[in-house]
Amino acid sequence: MTARWRLWCAAVLGAAVLTGCGSSPTGESSVLNTSALNATAQATGSGTAEAPAADGTRTVTDALGEQITVPADPQRVVTLSEPTLDGVLALGITPAGTTAGRGRSTVADYLPASAQQIPLLGTVAQPNVEAIAAATPDLILVDGTSINNNPPLIETLQEIAPTVQTGLAGGDWEANFSLVAQALGKESDGDRVLADYHSRADELAGGLSSHAEQTFSIVRWQGNSASLILKELPAGRALTDLGLQRPGNQDRNGRGHSEPVALENLAEIDADWIFFGTLGGSSVGNPQAGGGADSAAAQAVLEEAARTPGFTTLQAYRAGQVVPVDGSVWTSTGGPLLMSRILDDVSAALLGT
User: Fold this and answer.
1) pLDDT score recorded for residue 170
2) pTM attached to this predicted model
3) Would residue 39 count as lying in a domain?
4) What number of H helices and E strands is found in the chain?
5) Alpha helices, H only, 218-326
6) What does the alpha-carbon distance between residue 10 and residue 39 come to, in Å, rounded to a whole number?
7) Domain span at residue 331?
8) Considering all CA atoms of the chain, what is the largest pairwise distance in Å, rounded to the nearest integer?
9) Across the beta sheet with 48-49, what order do the strands follow?
10) Which tens digits make up the pLDDT trace of 227-273?
11) Which residues belong to the signal peptide in this entry (predicted)?
């Protein structure tokens, strides 16, 4: 095991995470204590890049503090997670290959239509190593939202092409995107993308003053069960950026993943407004299980949820303020394109624009 992965495992063990360092991801239930891991990454000075060397390479310090030598101008980039795919597209680059989105057999619908034509090299939980090698990448981008706690797979990928770990499960989406930009040698472009997002979020927040005293919940409904998207995940970050309040029990960071809520405790998902999404019957480990993730699918699942005892007594439901949204956007993960779509949805739901 490399020093890089000894660092990773030490962080995991120190955080008392149940998943062993030698195991592979088993699906959406695999969760890391991201506060400890983020602290470890920060302590190693991750997220820096050096100027190109004479041989046409650059050195990037990844999210685990490992120095990775990458091409100064990569031409065939492969992305193996939703945040890295979103990030490279936001920077104007079409990757040579990617993986299907969480709970899907394709990439997420919110991405540009051209993204549907990118060759698929497996799923976020199970990348196809042979297909990745056949794509002849000169740079591979991964993060903890996909290849989570799997050193042997990372080492295999490193034999194919320089592999940069851009972020941790449940980590800061902006830091993840910034490291994607650094790995591509597009730091200035990345800074502009983030500045544009924050400028738009600030402008939209200024128009939401009439909602300042209301509360907002983000719910994923899967297989007749509910889970909460808390403040550390992208959709939660977006609500914070917009100055929108969470209910008291949700006014906190989670563990880097959606938090299940027992049906007998359904009141925990309530708020003045609920943004309500689904990933159909699928999961990250079983994308073929069927069901959709778009707002129409959320509307259909909402009608099913309304038959659950206690759902129709929720304040948001009684007020007609449960908003069906695309689960691939609101209850999954991504980068600047996903965050921009969330701003669109909030504007449409609360301002009618």
Assistant:
1) 84
2) 0.85
3) no
4) 12, 13
5) 234-241, 295-305, 315-318
6) 12
7) 194-351
8) 67
9) 48-49, 57-61, 67-71
10) 999 999 999 999 999 999 999 999 999 988 899 999 999 999 999 99
11) 1-22
